[in-house]
Every structure is written in C-alpha cells, then in structure tokens.
Amino acid sequence: MRILFLTPRFPYPPLKGDSLRTYHQLRVLSRDHQITLLSMADAPVAPEDHARVATLCERVVVVPLPRWRVAVNLGTGLAVRQPLQVRYYQAPAFARRLAALLAGERFDVIHATLIRMLPYVWGVGTPPVAVDLIDSLSLNLADRRNQVRGVKRVAYELEYRRVCDYERAVVRHFPALVVSSPADQQELGGNGITVIPNGVDVDRFAFGGAAGRDAATLIFTGNMGYHPNEEAVLWFAAEVWPRLRANRPALHFQVVGTNPTDRVRALAATPGIEVLGRVPDVGDCLRQATVAVCPMRSGSGIQNKVLEAMAAGTPVVATAIANRGVQGVPDRDLLVADSPAGFAAAVDRALDDPALAERLRQAGRGFVEREFRWEQHGARLATIYASIQGAH
Predict the structure, then answer these.
(1) Strand, helix or coil at 281?
(2) Span 130-183, pLDDT tens digits
(3) Torsion region of 216: left, alpha or beta (phi above 0 gives left; psi -120 to 50 gives alpha)
(4) Three-state secondary-structure class, residue 363
(5) What is the per-residue pLDDT for 392?
(6) For 226, phi and psi rounded to 5 degrees?
(7) Cβ–Cβ under 8 Å, residues 384 and 325
(8) What are the CB-based long-range contacts (under 8 Å, 24+) for 319-325?
(9) Would you state the pLDDT for residue 152?
(10) Which of 92, 162, 227, 337 could staple 83 via S-S, CB 3.0–4.6 A?
(11) Which residues, in sequence order, are bridge partners of residue 336?
(12) How far apart are CA 130 and CA 113, in angstroms?
C-alpha cells in the first residue's frame, strides 16, 4: 500500500506526543508499505534528523512554516470560526505541495495527523483519508479552562467552544477517525472512531529491577514546554514535595524533558529538586529512579510517560487524569491519588514497601507488553487503511 502521511510537525526527534506517535507509525508501517511524508516544520530540520526519517520513507517533503505566516494566521484568527489550533498551521505553500503530490502520484490512502491538517484534506475525495486525531482537544481544553481566571478564562472559553464545534464537524465529515484512548472516543462520540493506543518501544525502555536504582529518587518525564506537564510539575513541587521532604530530607526529585520553562527551571532552587532538561536516554533515567510521578491536572490522550515508566519497571504514582487514557488498574499496575495528601501518601507507600514496589514493577511491565506495543498499533492502522480503501 502507498500511504501519504501529513503531519504538522517533523516527527524526529520524537520528543512530543504527536511526533512520538507519528515516528513509530512510520517505523512499523514502513516494513510493509511505501510511505511519502509531507511535513510542516516551524524550525529548520537538522540533516541527521531528516536522514533518520528518510530511511523509513520513499520520499520526505518538508514545508517550512515561517513565523510571519503564523503571526498572520493568528492575527486574523478572531475573524474566522476556526480554532486557533487549526488556524496556526495554515500555509498556502503546504497546500500547493500537497496538490502537486496528489496530481503527480498515486496513493492508496492519506493519513492526516491531528485536526491541524484537516483543512488540507477536507475536500479530498480520492484517495480516502484516515485521520489520527490522537486525542480530543476539547477534553484537554475543558480541564485547562477550569483552572484559569480573568482574561485567560475568556480566551480559553472562546477556543474551547470553537474546538467543540470543529470536532463535531470532523466527526460528521470523516468516516475513519482514530484516537488514543477510550476517554477521547467517548468525548468525541461517533460510530467511526477507533481507539488505537500509543505504544512503547519495549527494547528502548528495557525493564529494570530493584537493583541499581538510586535511593529515594522520584522522577517526572515529559516535554516540559507542554503546559499540562509544566502545570503538573509546579503543582507537585508546591503541594506535594514539602509534605514528602518534611519526613524524607534525603529525597530527590528529577524533572526530565526538553524545553523546560522559566518557572520549571526556577524549581532547581528548591532543595532536592533537579531540573535536568533533555537527556541522552530517558530510559536510563527511569531505570535509576525509585518512583515515577505523573501528577497531571489536565491533558487528554494517553500519557506516554506512564507507559514508559511501567515498561522500565519504575513504580508509578499518578492522578486519575493521568490514568484516564492508560486505564491501568489502581493498586495493581500503578497507584492513583489526586489530593496533595493522598498523592504524598501513595509515594510514601511505594518508597516504604519493597514488596509493593516489586509487584508494581512486574504488573506494569506486563500491562505494557500486553496492551501497548507499537507493532499492534501499526497492524490496526493498516486494517483501517484497507477498509476505507476497499469502500472507495
């Protein structure tokens, strides 16, 4: 099958949720299919990153998204009903390259990533289009708008309403939609929505046992330029960390992930907290830590950080929101708590009870191996492609 992938962000390095998902989709699908990638990029793509993706594709076409274009898009955003998340990525150059590809070559299916790409394929009749929404943006915004006040609340409310309207139109228009979790499927509704969860590269995130881990070290991993991750770490540092450190003065907390904001960097002044930023291998950091925390207060889709920690054998303490997409069984696969006191108590349990920590290690790894392999993800995508191709 010949597949045309459309992405709003270059999929390597896979440091953000959508680029991670896209990269592994390309990786597993390229074993049996021929792929052309048409990708936007709001920054120059490093030659080594381009080369890495080119090994997976017949052709890689990158269209720059200059800052002046983004400024124009956002400046005119209030005059249209499109969500800013969609408006941001409008570029005539991308539309021209897509039209040229469709006119010059034959593809069996188009794979469009996120609602950001949908204006480009809304009117395409052939080839059929499969849309990976990944998650419900309205579900994400619903959590975030309830945590802001004043002018920010007004802005979030406007964007939330636009996104809700747009997502409803998407569900009506496109017959083949994919999301990453049942919570997102339920939020969006519609009979044509398939849940295909994220996967984990179980070789990269190899299992680690109790031996060799640092004593009393907590870890949070994720793209720290993503607001829900920043929000989670700041909440943990303010509300949970003082409770833990009061009884454990030797406890350490590592914040691992690219693009830490100024507010996250400032946490390094707090005793016991290290802000490491981007590291060579997140798996190594996870295998050295004692407990992985995922104190998400907002966000949608599947939390890759939870799956990766489970795969690495690091016991996880998470909020219900963080577990919403993963759907691990509390007290079997991970510990779940939402209040500051409850979250601190759950961390204490994982630190104080070696038998519990070992059970969580084994159960978490088994859960990932059963439910979250990228190979399973790719096979299900290929089935969707075949079904819409056959219906055309």
Answers:
(1) coil
(2) 999 999 999 888 877 777 778 788 888 888 899 999 999 999 999 899 999 888
(3) left
(4) helix
(5) 61
(6) -90, 125
(7) no
(8) 319/294, 319/295, 319/343, 321/143, 321/296, 321/297, 322/232, 322/294, 322/295, 322/296, 324/181, 324/183, 324/300, 325/135, 325/180, 325/181, 325/182, 325/183, 325/184, 325/197, 325/300, 325/301
(9) 80
(10) 162
(11) 318
(12) 9
pTM of the model: 0.84
The pLDDT of 365-369, averaged and rounded, is 96
Share of the chain above pLDDT 90, in %: 80
Query: Could you identify the residue written with the tokens 């108590």?
Result: 345
79 pLDDT more than 70: no
Cα angle value 69/65/92 (rounded, 5°)? 70
CA 50 to each of CA 26, 54, 97, 129: distance values in angstroms, whole numbers, following the listed order: 13, 6, 18, 25
Q: Which residues pair with 21 in a beta bridge?
A: none
294: closest CA among 207, 364, 201, 208?
364
d(CA 81, CA 34): 37
What is the separation, in whole angstroms, between the first and last Cα of the chain?
14
Computed over its alpha carbons, how large is the radius of gyration of the chain?
Answer: 21
Residue 126 neighbours by CB under 8 Å, 6+ apart = 392
Give, for 217, the enclosing helix (H) or strand (E): strand 217-221
Q: Which helix (H) or strand (E) holds 238?
A: none
CA–CA distance, 136 with 124 (Å, rounded to integer): 23
Tokens matching residue 57: 């594709």
Whether residue 118 has pLDDT greater than 80: yes
Tokens at residue 69, please? 């274009």
* Residue 284, CA distances (Å) to 74, 194, 281, 364 in order: 40, 33, 6, 17
